[in-house]
Amino acid sequence: MKSLRHRLPSLTSLMVFEAAARTLNFTRAAEELHVSQAAVSKQIRYLEDYFGFELFQRHGRRVTLSSRGQQLLQKVSASFNYLADAVDELGTHTSVASVTLAANTAMSHYWLSAAINAFRDRYPAFGVNIRVITSDHTPDHFADDVNLAVVYDPSRRIGWSGELLFEEELYPVASPDYIRSHPLCGEGPEALLSHRLLDYERVEPNWINWPVWFESLGVNARGLKASGHGNNYTVLVDAAARGHGVTLGTRYLLDLELQSGRLARLSDFSVRSGRGYYLMLNNEQPYREEVGLIHQWLREFRVDAAEGG
């Protein structure tokens, strides 16, 4: 792939074009950019030579945009506004303190978001921005700028300390309507093999899907073909809640989904993987009171969720 420098004309010429196209007046554009009118005309000619077609139609001293000029203006204007927003956002972050948290998609969506919302309700005057990085690639959770991470089976990490939030326990869940119309027939976990099983792609090898779950209960699930797949856990949980089948639910992670009635357990069969979710603290970052407050809150929210489960 070519670099942007080789794919784009001069950015100066694009900025001059945006001002001229927006004002439809080369003189006004020159005043806005603090350059001469001749400099504006030169940059426009450069762009028209670059593209090989006219961007403006000249009518004496008046100019209008050609159809291709209008097309270019829409793209250039949107791009510059996007860049300006990014610069403004960075400028805001430099003046307002922030705490950065990281977690995978499922944890961010089902547990961490609830914990953060509860924290904001408890501390409405908390003046620090809470930034969340969501990624299913574990190394992303340990970036230098991350203060706290809620991580699945993190292993030992230099410069980080952690504690177990909750152990992983997995059991089949589905919508109440699905369970009423598809009751479990049979006494063993193999009875689930006749159901519409929803599974996800194992992005990392330590994730547990249906074949691993069945094998942990002594059921031969080799060659098992799921009825539906999703590229992440939240997609599967939503599909199950809509009555499309059965997926594996994680205790504590889906407590609120079960309490709300969107999902229910299909059976009492469950698997404890020996793994779990850990709350990790970046010890390479200087200690800050706001980080300590959120850290303590997440530890307490863990206890609340466990007691409610």
Largest β sheet strand count, sense and barrel closure: 7 strands, mixed
| Assigned CATH class of the largest domain | Alpha Beta
Which geometry do the CA atoms define? elongated
The helix content, as a percent range, equals: 40-55%
Order of helices and strands: HHHHEEHEHEEEHEHEHEHEEH
- Contiguous low-pLDDT stretches (5 residues minimum) are 303-309
Strand content: 15-25%
CATH topology of the largest domain: D-Maltodextrin-Binding Protein, domain 2
Annotation, overall tally of beta strands: 11
The averaged pLDDT comes out at 86
Number of domains: 2
Radius of gyration: 28 Å
What does this structure look like?
The chain is 44% helix and 21% strand. The model is unreliable at 303-309 (pLDDT under 50). Strand 1 (56-59) and strand 2 form a beta hairpin. The protein has 309 residues and is α/β, with parallel strands linked by helices. The protein folds into 2 domains: 4-95, Arc Repressor Mutant, subunit A, CATH 1.10.10.10; 99-309, D-Maltodextrin-Binding Protein, domain 2 (3-Layer(aba) Sandwich). Helix 2 (11-23) packs across helix 5 (67-95). It has helices spanning 4-7, 11-23, 26-33, 37-51, 67-95, 105-122, 176-181, 210-216, 233-241, 255-260, 289-308, and strands at 56-59, 62-65, 98-103, 129-134, 148-152, 160-174, 198-200, 228-230, 247-250, 264-265, 271-282. It contains 11 helices and 11 strands.
